[in-house]
């Protein structure tokens, strides 16, 4: 019950980090399912999205001063996940955008666009939370 009381006194920055952590978790799970189905799975992307989610959630939920740095660490993990995802999807993006199958396309572009949009939303929300206070 003490943890619930701690959540109620959090500021908007903490709530935004909580939302970003949940969104990073959803993005990682979606990526694992969709990229696995497209045979384009990279473990680094999944691990970075999940570590970003853990850092963001710990920042929001753990009432300690040492977790303040985890907000920025979450941003780093999410950025690495997005960049690694772009690098691993570049062949599919090139094939779809050029209209020819030349680089070994793994399928459609839908899961790539959805993963990028979810990851970028999580990144922007986490970046905004970095400029806000965690507690009142």
Write a structural description.
The chain is elongated, with a radius of gyration of 17 Å. α2 (12-37) runs antiparallel to α3 and α2 (12-37) packs antiparallel against α5. The protein has 136 residues and is mainly alpha-helical. Helices cover 75% and strands 0% of the residues. The model has no long low-confidence stretch (mean pLDDT 86).
- Compressed to H and E, one letter per element, the order equals HHHHH
The main β sheet shows up as: none
Structural class of the helices, strands and pairings?
mainly alpha
Please compute the radius of gyration using only Cα atoms. 17 Å
Beta-strand content:
under 5%
Layout of helices and strands:
Elements: H1 2-8, H2 12-37, H3 43-61, H4 70-98, H5 110-130
Helix pairs in contact: 2-3, 2-5, 3-4, 4-5
Key features of this structure:
136 residues, elongated, 5 helices, mainly alpha
In brief:
The protein has 5 helices and no strands. It is mainly α and 136 residues long.
């Amino acid at each position: 019950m003490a943890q619930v009381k701690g959540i109620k006194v959090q500021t908007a920055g903490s709530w935004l980090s909580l939302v970003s952590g949940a969104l990073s978790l959803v993005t990682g799970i979606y990526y694992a399912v969709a990229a696995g189905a497209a045979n384009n799975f990279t473990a680094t992307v999944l691990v970075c999205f999940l570590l970003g989610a853990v850092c963001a959630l710990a920042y929001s939920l753990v009432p300690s001063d040492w977790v303040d740095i985890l907000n920025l660490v979450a941003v780093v993990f999410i950025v690495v996940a997005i960049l690694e995802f772009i690098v691993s999807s570049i062949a599919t993006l090139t094939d779809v955008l050029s209209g020819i199958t030349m680089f070994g396309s793994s399928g459609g572009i839908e899961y790539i666009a959805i993963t990028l949009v979810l990851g970028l939303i999580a990144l922007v929300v986490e970046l905004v939370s970095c400029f806000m206070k965690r507690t009142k």
